[in-house]
């Protein structure tokens, strides 16, 4: 460390914990949230009281470290909180990454959540999670990055959760003119039944082919044995 650089405002352990929290978060964390999380450290690990000014001093110190190390990211003030962000000069590369990710096929999990949103919209994240039985944070983020889903408002319920709905890109992606063209649940059941029937037919055909191959192999082996005896 350069001798002219001010000493760290807290212990290295607190800096490391703070860095880990900011690295792992999906949304900006306020100084209040960070101080509350750091309260879980023991008095030995956190010898001095932590407040917003201390957190800001820690962020400034870590950013100086990143700059001296030539890192491609900094901790930025975003929407009333703090989060890691890549430096602007690398934006073109991140754009290429997003474009590459958008080419990937949707996972089964994403398709299931998209179906819930398409048929139930406007729908909240808790409602999606209640229907699917799993956390929907990552899937929602993926669908929004693909511009298949967007925020359409807030529910008039306690906490005012966000409401999600499909986009025009969703219609284009699935070749629909409007939501009225979505297949009815009965039609989906028929398609699923037909698909299952096709899978069963293919499996039976493969089993029959395997059996025929085995019988043919046994027959050829028997002929070879007869020939050896002759």
Give a description of the structure:
- The chain is mainly α.
- It folds into three domains: 12-87, Winged helix-like DNA-binding domain superfamily/Winged helix DNA-binding domain (Arc Repressor Mutant, subunit A, Orthogonal Bundle); 105-181, Arc Repressor Mutant, subunit A, CATH 1.10.10; 184-230.
- The chain contains nine helices and five strands.
- The strands form two sheets. A three-stranded antiparallel beta sheet has the order 3-5-4.
- Helix 5 (108-120) packs across helix 7 (137-145).
- The longest helix has 45 residues, at 185-229.
- It starts with 11 loop residues before the first helix and ends with a helix.
- The model has no long low-confidence stretch (mean pLDDT 82).
Task: State the distance separating the first and last CA atoms.
Answer: 89 Å
Number of domains: 3
CATH topology call of the largest domain = Arc Repressor Mutant, subunit A
The profile of the biggest β sheet is: 3 strands, antiparallel
**Would you identify the CATH H-level superfamily of the largest domain?**
Winged helix-like DNA-binding domain superfamily/Winged helix DNA-binding domain
Strand order of the largest sheet: 3-5-4
Number of distinct beta strands: 5
**Structural category:** mainly alpha
Task: Show the helix and strand layout.
Elements (H helix, E strand, L loop, with lengths): L11 H13 L6 H8 L13 H18 L3 E6 L2 E6 L4 H13 L4 H13 L2 E2 H8 L4 H9 L3 E6 L7 E5 L1 H6 L11 H45 L1
Antiparallel strand pairs: 1-2, 3-5, 4-5
Helix pairs in contact: 5-7
């Amino acid at each position: 460390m350069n001798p002219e650089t001010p000493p760290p405002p807290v212990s290295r352990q607190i800096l490391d914990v703070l860095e880990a929290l900011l690295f792992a978060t999906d949304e900006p964390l306020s100084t209040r949230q960070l101080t509350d999380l750091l309260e879980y450290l023991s008095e030995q690990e956190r010898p001095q009281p932590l407040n917003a000014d201390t957190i800001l001093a820690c962020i400034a110190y870590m950013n100086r470290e990143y700059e001296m190390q030539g890192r491609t990211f900094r901790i930025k003030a975003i929407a009333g909180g703090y989060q890691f962000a890549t430096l602007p000069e690398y934006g073109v590369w991140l754009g290429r990454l997003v474009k590459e990710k958008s080419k990937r096929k949707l996972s089964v999990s994403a398709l299931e959540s998209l179906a819930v949103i398409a048929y139930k919209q406007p729908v909240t994240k808790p409602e999606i999670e209640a229907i699917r039985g799993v956390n929907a944070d990552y899937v929602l983020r993926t669908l929004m990055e693909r511009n298949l889903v967007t925020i359409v408002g807030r529910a008039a319920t306690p906490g005012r959760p966000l409401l999600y709905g499909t986009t025009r890109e969703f219609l284009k992606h699935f070749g629909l003119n409007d939501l009225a063209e979505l297949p009815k649940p009965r039609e989906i059941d028929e398609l699923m039944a037909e698909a299952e029937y096709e899978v069963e037919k293919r499996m039976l055909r493969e089993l029959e082919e395997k059996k025929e191959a085995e019988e043919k192999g046994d027959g050829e082996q028997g002929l070879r044995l007869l020939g050896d005896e002759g």
